[in-house]
Backbone:
């Protein structure tokens, strides 16, 4: 509250106006009121028991009021914002004016030498401790009816925590894919390959069938990513690979200040789930342009480069990715080099595992070439 109230005071005096209070503290004020009310009611019951030994401790009404009310829900709202709040804080700490504000607040004795990140995580720890206190009350309860009620409340809180973990994972995945949607550029087919000619009058109608929606699925997962070098006939090209649970995407790294379409990638807020290497690229104003069509995992052939070829052709930490069409014809080959042998082995392992998992998930499906009049979206 010291950090929050100080920031409010500064903003009322027109300092740090661009800092978003909600992104940093979310519903902290509501959470404080709810938690304080619970603790106050809890100890008030204890106080009454101490002052009047004849009265029974009515914990049940307190537990019913708060745990069947909004206590856990209020915690969930805060926890869902936590990861983005910490990352937002890390970005703000790069600024001199915000750094001065943090140092001033940290000098307050009530902070006990704790920094803001250490304080922001406290409500997460509090939520996980509720089942412990409920379990302790349950152990010491003698009435079987009350005992059953307390146990049901404890199970409800534990379920709430499990649900929260699932929501956090879903939210992280959603934020990651929304960010990737901004960073990855899908060039039109005539821009990607000069062999294809399309008159200007037809380009607009073809643009409507955009490939960008391929990253809009919340069911898709990003398994591995990173920078590699692509060996072309006349040069080495910096590329960034995205291994999803159903396809591999190879992109070229571009460091232009402006992305295609005129928006500034430097203004896009970088979300925590992204890899540090990609975060750094975005901050520098870079983006990734799709080099070729996505390679479905059931059409991907992975080949290691043996030491003989490494020596003869001066290939370092190299491996080959082959893209086959539905007729087992090779339609693209990518010779990739990793920075280290360890990185190469990691990529090979990740791709092999992804292919294996994808195959297992689809092994029950009958795959025939001319079964349907139109090809499915998986092919």
Residues:
């Amino acid at each position: 509250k010291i950090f929050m109230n100080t920031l409010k005071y500064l903003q009322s005096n027109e300092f740090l106006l661009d800092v978003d209070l909600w992104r940093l503290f979310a519903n902290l004020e509501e959470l404080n009121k709810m938690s304080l009310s619970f603790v106050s009611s809890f100890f008030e019951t204890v106080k009454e028991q101490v002052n009047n030994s004849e009265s029974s401790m009515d914990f049940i009404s307190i537990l019913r009021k708060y745990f069947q009310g909004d206590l856990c829900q209020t915690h969930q709202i805060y926890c869902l914002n936590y990861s983005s709040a910490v990352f937002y804080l890390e970005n703000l700490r790069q600024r001199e004016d915000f750094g001065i504000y943090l140092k001033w607040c940290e000098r307050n004795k009530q902070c006990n030498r704790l920094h803001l990140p250490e304080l922001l995580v406290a409500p997460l720890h509090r939520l996980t401790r509720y089942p412990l206190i409920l379990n302790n009350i349950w152990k010491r309860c003698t009435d079987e009816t009350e005992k059953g009620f307390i146990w049901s409340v404890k199970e409800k809180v534990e379920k709430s925590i499990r649900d929260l973990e699932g929501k956090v994972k879903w939210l992280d995945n959603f934020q990651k894919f929304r960010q990737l949607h901004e960073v990855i550029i899908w060039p039109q087919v005539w821009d990607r390959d000069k062999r294809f000619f399309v008159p200007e009058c037809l380009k607009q109608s073809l643009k409507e069938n955009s490939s960008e929606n391929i990253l809009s699925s919340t069911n898709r997962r990003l398994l591995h990513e990173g920078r590699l070098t692509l060996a072309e006939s006349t040069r080495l090209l910096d590329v960034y690979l995205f291994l999803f649970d159903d396809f591999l995407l190879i992109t070229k790294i571009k460091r232009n200040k402006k992305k295609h379409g005129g928006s500034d990638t430097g203004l896009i807020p970088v979300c925590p789930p992204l890899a540090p290497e990609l975060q750094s690229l975005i901050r520098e104003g870079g983006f990734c342009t799709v080099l070729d069509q996505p390679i479905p995992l059931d059409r991907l052939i992975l080949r290691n480069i043996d030491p003989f070829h490494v020596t003869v052709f001066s290939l370092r930490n190299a491996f080959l990715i082959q893209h086959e069409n539905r007729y087992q014809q090779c339609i693209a080959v990518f010779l990739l080099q990793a920075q280290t042998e360890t990185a190469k082995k990691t990529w090979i392992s990740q791709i092999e595992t992804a292919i294996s998992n994808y195959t297992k998930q689809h092994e029950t499906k009958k795959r025939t070439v001319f079964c349907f009049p139109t090809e499915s979206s998986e092919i």
